[in-house]
Amino acid sequence: MDTEDTTTMIPPRYQRLSDELAEAIHGGRLPVGSRLPSLRQMASQRQLSLNTVIAAYRQLEDAGLVIPRPKAGFEVAPRLSAPQRSLRDAPSAPTAPLQQVLMARVLEAQRRPGVVDLAFAGPRGRQFYPGAQLARHTAQVLRHGQQTVETYARPNGSQRLLAQIVRRGPRLGLHTHAERLLLTHGAMEALQLALRAVTQAGDAVGIEAPSYFNLYPLLTTLGLQPIELPTHPQRGLDVDALEALLERTPVAALVVMPTVHNPLGCTMPIADKQRLAELVNARQLPLIEDAVYAELQFCEPPAPLLKAFDRDGWVMVVGGFSKTLAPDYRIGWLDGGRFAERIALLKFQSTGGEPQLLGDAVAAYLEAGSYEHHLHRMRRLYREQVGRLRQLVAEHFPAGTCATEPQGGFLLWLELPGVDTRELFERALAEDIVFMPGQVYSRGARYRHCLRLSCCQTLDARFIGAVERLGAIARELVAG
Amino acid sequence: MDTEDTTTMIPPRYQRLSDELAEAIHGGRLPVGSRLPSLRQMASQRQLSLNTVIAAYRQLEDAGLVIPRPKAGFEVAPRLSAPQRSLRDAPSAPTAPLQQVLMARVLEAQRRPGVVDLAFAGPRGRQFYPGAQLARHTAQVLRHGQQTVETYARPNGSQRLLAQIVRRGPRLGLHTHAERLLLTHGAMEALQLALRAVTQAGDAVGIEAPSYFNLYPLLTTLGLQPIELPTHPQRGLDVDALEALLERTPVAALVVMPTVHNPLGCTMPIADKQRLAELVNARQLPLIEDAVYAELQFCEPPAPLLKAFDRDGWVMVVGGFSKTLAPDYRIGWLDGGRFAERIALLKFQSTGGEPQLLGDAVAAYLEAGSYEHHLHRMRRLYREQVGRLRQLVAEHFPAGTCATEPQGGFLLWLELPGVDTRELFERALAEDIVFMPGQVYSRGARYRHCLRLSCCQTLDARFIGAVERLGAIARELVAG
């Protein structure tokens, strides 16, 4: 366990005040429109300095939870409601080509010089990564072991890094061994290997709707048929619906993102995770748990992975370091559960091993013990940024817009009743703004009125201007 | 072009003498058993110093071309004949499971501590790689650009490295652009992407028999059906046979290794390459050219790639740096020909980009200009080692054994009439010796009496002892 981290976690006073008020706002005890006590009142009530209270209020303002009113202190800001209705409409006829065309279009748009990219789900900017430290550790690995660069990598990857993944696991309820783990070329290769280990061409695979868009071409490549499973926008996979579906449709495997879902940002309630784990164990149904955002959960302590409730190894876990630490190094990992041996052979046969230099460098960084501290900062930062983005959307998007309340990460999923987001996409692109239209997250048209925004860059005037403008275009589309 | 390389290439005198004599031996002008002129005779004939002649003769001895006879100077050594007959027997019934089981067994055997590994086709030992220089360049890239480690890689990979690949291309007849190229996670991912770009599950793909063993599980994964094409052990793919086959069996693509074939070591004659390129262009049939050993051709100047004769971009080329420069970095590359755009999308969708740090480091090494010099040394070294290994086989393996005469690389392919190499494998493994049994290179049993040996490690007493022992076991099997 990371004992060194908990000791450094006592937050400063302003932070504690800010957290307490934020909870009161989220919990509805401080309703929209209500006034916070004045700075002086609060300072004397809590026996805090005025500066501490100012810092706390400023943080709430940054997070979009309160708005300063001229000469009237701070008021709880109007908030978006979270979508509550599951989008259970029957899957439309497969339109994979459209989905593919749209994805290619987004990709092409992201490459245009000068666009404001609200689509890419990778942090950009040095404030999001401990780049200097990682570079230092990498240089050190190079100095101490020239042989790392002149030797073929071990098939399972850096043993040092596997040991660190094992060590950190229990924090998220993952109790594993190095023999069950494998480093992969990004989390995407881990998904691929896990799927290949448990399916054959022609099989059906249950995936959530909406799902990570690159899952679709991956399934197509492997000759697999996606069966879309209903989700609740705030609670994730609908286990009842899954159970009912399994009675009539056999699937070879499931791919689920139970902790900080992409694109929804939601985490399944513990009870649902338990039920799902029991269900796949009882049915001996392989489940691939995509946990790439699990380290960026906003709550402390973080919720455990689905894998924590796995009894017989039917759950495989996919993780990685690209979102949090080393985007260039492309290091993913896979806990293969009961399929670990088969997966190791597939890995060897398809891309060999992973660079020892990079694995050892990340291991050295983790060994040095400041990863948890870094993650802690990032969770706060993303939480703030997501809050600010929600607030911007509340202010500038059409009435009736819903936005998820992410439980981690840096993604926001919007429902814009009455707006075709493909049309919005083209209109926005003409003004050099790119986002992810909802239709790339499903085969059918059910997310035609949805979109995903990322806020893993500096929320500067350019970013804010783009969001405001996007909202304005959406309003125009509604007005028709 | 690499003008800096040709100027450094004038070999020393002993080398020129040794090359001349080696050619005479290979060409049959100095037949087996004939005596070389005495050291003194040769020195006075050629007006060379005695030391120069000694060095030249020693090199021929190292290469296994001559044997010192006590008090009788040097004699041209007995040589293995190269196999001449194409193994055209009809493909047996598919036995993919056996092939898979055997491959898993080899992999497992290679991991045993203490084995002498004659199977692995990756150089082991620092004399085969410029590790110190590469580490230095890597450290320099880290120092000059911390941002490399904290930024997501560009989808196509390091532009610096792509530029170097373009620059080096003409040496092998490859005239390409960075826009058509892509870095991949080892050459294996390049093969995968190229196949995915031009096939769909259910398609048939023509591959050589024998073929790189990891091609089979790759095809299986993608739902593709391998059609094995006959090869000549010294001239590679049989273009006549291919042409006849295409008349009756449609294939979606071909995978061919025309330059230093794995496992055969052979290079297709130029005329055959030209015909094959014309054929695929005329038929608009995508061909994937695996060129990972092309930089290790023994002849100077090297033979051009098949791609050199491609007219309309139907040939894709797979290359990489693992065999020659940076095994740990796992850098492959792919010239996607007319399919480059589709391949770029597939790459993004399946594993993202390649680490910029590693790509830039290799680029920096190439820019510094000593790669060609390094390759030159390696070609000589492997040529010598292959020669010594052939000689060992000639001395210790059963009568009737044939061995290919590789035109590059470090692999030797043996035919042992009357020996089941799976049995030999198990017997050898019991004595901690591992090699590649022939049956992993084809679906059927046609290579049951074949095996592949690697000589990309130091040929020390342990290595030599293992080859001798392997020969002895084979003789026992023949006698038994």
UniProtKB/TrEMBL annotation, chains A, B:
InterPro entries on file: Aminotransferase_I/II_large (IPR004839), HTH_trans_reg/aminotransferase (IPR051446), PyrdxlP-dep_Trfase (IPR015424), PyrdxlP-dep_Trfase_major (IPR015421), PyrdxlP-dep_Trfase_small (IPR015422), Tscrpt_reg_HTH_GntR (IPR000524), WH-like_DNA-bd_sf (IPR036388), WH_DNA-bd_sf (IPR036390)
Record Pfam families: Aminotran_1_2, GntR
CDD domains reported for this sequence: AAT_like, WHTH_GntR
Alphabetic keyword roster: Aminotransferase, DNA-binding, Pyridoxal phosphate, Transcription, Transcription regulation, Transferase
Signal peptide region: none
Residues covered by the HTH gntR-type domain: 11-79
Gene Ontology terms, MF aspect: DNA binding; DNA-binding transcription factor activity; pyridoxal phosphate binding; transaminase activity
Membership in a protein family: In the C-terminal section; belongs to the class-I pyridoxal-phosphate-dependent aminotransferase family.
Protein name listed in UniProt: PLP-dependent aminotransferase family protein
Source organism per UniProt: Stenotrophomonas lactitubi
Origin organism lineage: Bacteria, Pseudomonadati, Pseudomonadota, Gammaproteobacteria, Lysobacterales
